[in-house]
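Input chain follows. Return structure tokens only.
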Amino acid sequence: MTTHHFITRRTFLGYAGTSAAALLAGLPQVEATPVTKAGGDAFEPDVALELTASPQSVALRSGPATPVWTYEAQVVKGDPASVHASPGGYLGPTLRVRRGQKLRVDFVNHTNQPSIVNWHGLHVPADMMGLPRYEVKPGEHYRYEFEVLDRAGTYWYHAMAAGHTPEQVYFGLAGLLLVTDDEEQALALPRDEYDLPLVIQDRTFGDNNHLHYLPGTGPEAAPAHGSPPQAPGMGSSTMGGSGMMGGMMSGGMSGMMTRMMGFFGDTILVNGKPDATLKVATHAYRLRVLNASNARTYKLGWEDGRPLTVIATGGGLLERPVQKDYVMLTPGQRIELWADFSKDAVGTQLTLMSLAFDGMAGMMESTMGEEMMGGGMMGNMMSHMMSGSSLADGARFAILKVAVTQKADEVLELPQRLATLTRLRAEDAVNRDRPRIFRVTMGHMRWGFNGRSFQMNEVAPDEIVKLGTTEVWEFVNNMMMAHAIHLHGLQFQVLERHNSPQGAGVVEGCVDDGWEDTVLLMPNERVRLLMRFADFTGSYAYQCHMLEHAAMGLMRDYEVQPAQTPA
């Protein structure tokens, strides 16, 4: 039986002291249930944080401030450097932890919607993952307690809620979580001011600098009849719900396309700020890049054609650096780049681009034929209509300006060996010869896997795995749209790709060398993943991390059962 980690106001205030008492004053008391014990003893954290979600107004552009939701954090116990504020934009603070630390996070929900915090990429117990079944109502709080088991790397956290995930992430509820360990610390990697996050998102600004998403969404949307507004096509118990069709028509054809195809904004933000410029010295940098967009995939490359040097993926450092002319980054994915500006003169101006590739229109054209698509003209029109944005899927555009503004004397050499990876072996998979097949499907205007859309707390027989086993899962996409396949609670290895689009300017940019939790799945492509179910039983999720796709059903639960089920 899963324990909900609600805590009483009295318990939390007794732990956190007077500063937290002032912050939590006025919160309604919620029913207490026991806190999970670690190894039979009371959980004693090395680091304890309080993380609050609330509405704010921030100055993102000239003119009126922009209403957003944002996370704020404070250290209750442990190293004060565990929390780094994100200046300027609306993103949550960067959380920094060490592998092996015991972490407690008390999440306080000051929004007007149910919400929970999802720890994207972390290997944690099922009730610590932050799935919609654990969401808390406005004014309530949830306690997370877990040991950090993951390798050093760039992870992140974001809101989840049945009916509200795309909306809450869009309006600001996301932040980075960085893990370090002894292996990483032993390397001569760029540190401090040379270790920088780049969180990429696309947004659209409407009147008065308000973020434009879908009708009736955002921190200023009034809850209908005293309850939180329904987000794109959601019901309370499913990710689609009986009210889907009414919601589908809200906002007209553009709103319907956004719900089905995903949101594509016309303004690129980096670290929560539009028109971003990064000022650098003549030094090597570690750039931690996160695609936190709702649906847009980026094809990262330098405008001057210099190669990208990848040193880490979503699950941590690679064995060796990998050079790419461009790198594909789908929603939820992270990469780390070694960017060396030591040979650039002061005054040099560079641009990090999203290069052109075959997006929705190109895939339709290749599937249906150029003549049927009007020699490409119809494809361009369809792309703009389907994305609802002047910045079409697969378009070429600038992401970030980089200005070399000062001289640095130190020279840092790129390590030729980064980390030791313990790889899984395909021959150890219990289903090596018969992988589990998950096909992306569409029916009755809802996405699904194998014809099944999301249903809260529902697990099919072929979605049950055994603790301690290694398996091969194969995802098949026969649709004309790409998807971002994400598994909660573990990291996997990409075994192989089949039917990858040739000439689309995509597949050569996939970095499949290390550990990942999210993978790009192109139209007509099949991707085989190798994973091991270790340490924890319980229900986790797998989904498309193009958030509107998940909201329209492309998310399911999988259950890890004990290796031996008692009679």
